[in-house]
Design goal:
Elements lengths: L5 E7 L3 H10 L6 E4 L14 H6 L9 E3 L4 E2 L29 E3 L2 E3 L6 H14 L2 E2 L24 H12 L5 E2 L2 E2 L31 H10 L4 E4 L2 E8 L6 E8 L2 E12 L3 H10 L24 E8 L12 E2 L16 E4 L5 H6 L10 H6 L1 E8 L8 E4 L5 E4 L6 H15 L10 H8 L3 E5 L35 E3 L14 H19 L1
Parallel strand pairs: 1-2, 1-13, 2-10, 3-19, 13-21
Antiparallel strand pairs: 3-4, 5-6, 7-9, 8-15, 11-12, 12-13, 14-17, 14-20, 16-17, 18-19
Helix pairs in contact: 1-5, 1-11, 3-11
The structure holds flavin-adenine dinucleotide (FAD) and iron/sulfur cluster (SF4).
The site of flavin-adenine dinucleotide has 41 residues, from helix 1, strand 11, helix 6 and helix 11.
Length: about 525
């Protein structure tokens, strides 16, 4: 008889990586244990309160990390079943085909991946189906080839966003519908699970209509009797056999007690910062620099994108409810004037007064925060940061997480911001003010920019990179640790470079890819 504390597979963390892998492995009948440090996000009206979510940080972890000066860092991250997908904006992009090769940036080199776009393409298609992605192929000028259409039609633009899209098109750009994981049926609104509300990005979905890893992966996986989930189960350490070649025990803190579990295969998927911290905490005689860290890359090459939220204030109000439907990738690889990559332009969810109070920009002259929020288009700009070995996760002597990060490769991002400013000044679609709707405001520097501070770790990745050379990577191409025979990592840690689009779909697709490998191994 099987021991109650021994499993075929243990998966640590239930977010984009771990949750998706659980879904993939569940039908195999293998005994699978999911260990998740958080509980379920409580279902309550505060799910959709910007005051509770953004101003009070009700659902955010209260854990305190440190920055390189030893100052406290309150990370904007969430520990729940489903991980950060419970809170994400569900913009589900494929990396570009070129992102898998080496790319020259003004700030240095974005290294190639050990697999090609073609290797992961079938899994992107599966992930788009699993996560109900709505989009339109053929619109995005940089999109990679796909073997299937999007499974659902694009989310339509509201009038103000359609105006902007028309203006961008008139200026020669190819704006496109953002691929989105929301279970919206615009043809049959009475049946649609998603009600297209303004509190999606950054908020949990009260009606379970967002394509998150809990609703679409963990809950269905748990319908299989061979899958068990332990919540509030914090994995503090992994122990190995005397040879150091196998993880033999997963140490868990739960309900104030220490428990131990074992499995033939152990998969770490705690998010790029916590996964690195877990391996670093698991030092032993055979792994003196941290588990699977003979290469000394674990914790290094932390990336999180160069991100900005930019509010373009106009004379006319912006009554849009669901703002995230439009993106622009025309400058992803550069522009006529600049031959290096610049990045991706899209939107955050509509900002309101309470959200602005949480990270208030300078007040535009003549505006209150409330008025600013009502008159703004709220852009999200992402550029690629490069994998610098000195940008890293370390532990202090008490075991606290320390995040050391110096931004890099910023010139392309500054140029992207300048490009957007220029484009906004050429808006013409406003029937009342034409160009003037924006031009006057820009002239008075009312285009406000705020770089996401270090605590914004939403796009964390890169800390346990995969590769073919054990000297320069911790994981092999199947995301198995080079130095440990039964240890895998499937969260965003494996990225050797990050591209400039949102990471979640790539994490999900990779988890499905690794899942295929594990199913063969488990046979
Ligand atoms: C506000 C916000 C908006 C975002 N919007 C987008 C978007 O629109 N598009 C996009 O692609 N991405 C977006 N992201 C990023 C996206 O959510 C992440 O890239 C993705 O969730 C990362 O997946 P992961 O598996 O690496 O980690 P996570 O999803 O963070 O999952 C890690 C899990 O591990 C658990 N865990 C951690 N440590 C331990 C431990 N020691 N023991 C046990 N369990 C542990 C955590 O509780 C968590 O459940 C957004 C993120 C945020 C916060
Ligand atoms: S109802 Fe739709 S728009 Fe609102 S939070 Fe849920 S998925 Fe997002």
């Amino acid at each position: 008889m099987a021991r109650a504390d021994h499993f075929d597979v243990i998966i640590i963390g239930t977010g984009a990586g771990g949750g998706t892998l659980a879904y993939k492995l569940a039908p195999s009948g293998k005994r699978i244990l999911l260990l998740e440090r958080g509980g379920y996000v409580p279902r309550e009206k505060d799910n959709w309160s910007t005051k509770a979510v953004n101003l009070e940080g009700k659902y955010q972890t209260k854990e305190v990390w440190l920055d390189s000066n030893g100052d406290p860092l309150h990370p904007h991250t969430n520990y729940y079943v489903g991980g950060n997908t419970k809170f994400y904006g569900a913009a589900l992009f494929r990396l570009r085909r070129e992102d898998f090769g080496e790319i020259k940036h003004s700030g240095g080199i974005s290294p190639a991946w050990p697999i090609s776009y073609e290797d992961i393409e079938p899994y992107y298609t599966q992930a788009e189906r699993l996560y109900h992605v709505h989009g339109q192929r053929g619109e995005d000028p940089t999109e990679p080839p796909a073997s299937a259409p999007y499974p659902h039609p694009p989310v339509s633009h509201e009038p103000r966003i359609q105006h902007l899209s028309d203006d961008f098109a008139r200026l020669g750009l190819r704006p496109f519908h953002t691929p989105l994981g929301v279970m919206l049926d615009e043809q049959n609104p009475h049946k649609s699970r998603c009600i297209r509300c303004e509190t999606c990005d950054g908020h949990p979905c009260l009606v379970y209509a967002k394509s998150d890893a809990q609703v679409l992966c963990v809950d269905p996986a748990l319908e299989h009797p061979n899958v068990t989930l332990l919540t509030n189960a914090y994995v503090s350490r992994l122990e190995t056999s005397p040879s150091g070649r196998e993880v033999t025990k997963v140490i868990v803190q739960r309900n104030g007690a220490t428990e131990g579990y074992s499995a033939n295969i152990v998969v770490v998927s705690c998010g790029a910062i916590n996964s690195a911290a877990l391996l670093l905490r698991s030092v032993n005689d055979k792994h003196p620099r941290g588990l699977a860290n003979g290469s000394d890359v674990v914790g290094r090459h932390y990336m999180g994108h160069v991100n900005s939220v930019l509010m373009a204030i106009s004379k006319c109000p912006n009554p849009t409810v669901f703002q995230k439907s439009l993106s622009v990738n025309d400058f992803y690889f550069g522009s006529k004037e600049w031959s290096y990559p610049m990045g991706h332009i899209s939107f955050v969810g509509k900002l309101d007064r309470d959200t602005l109070r949480a990270g208030a920009p300078a007040i535009a002259p003549g505006f209150t925060l409330d008025l600013m929020a009502k008159h703004s288009l709220d852009f999200w700009l992402t550029s690629e940061d490069l994998p610098d070995p000195d940008n890293r996760v370390i532990l202090d002597h008490k075991g606290n997480i320390v995040l050391v990060y110096t931004p890099n490769n910023e010139e392309g991002h500054q140029r992207l911001i300048a490009k957007l400013k220029e484009l906004m000044q050429q808006q013409a679609k406003c029937q009342d003010h034409g160009h003037e709707c924006h031009v006057g405001l820009f002239a008075r520097n009312l285009f406000l920019g705020q770089r996401i501070p270090l605590a914004g770790v939403a796009h964390q990745n890169g800390t346990i990179r995969f590769g073919r050379d054990p000297k320069t990577s911790a994981l092999d191409v199947n995301c198995k640790a080079h130095e440990v025979d039964n240890l895998y990592v499937v969260d965003a840690s494996f990225f050797p470079s990050s591209g400039a689009v949102n990471p979640a779909l790539t994490i999900m697709a990779n988890a499905l890819r690794v899942g295929d490998h594990l199913l063969k191994r488990l046979r």
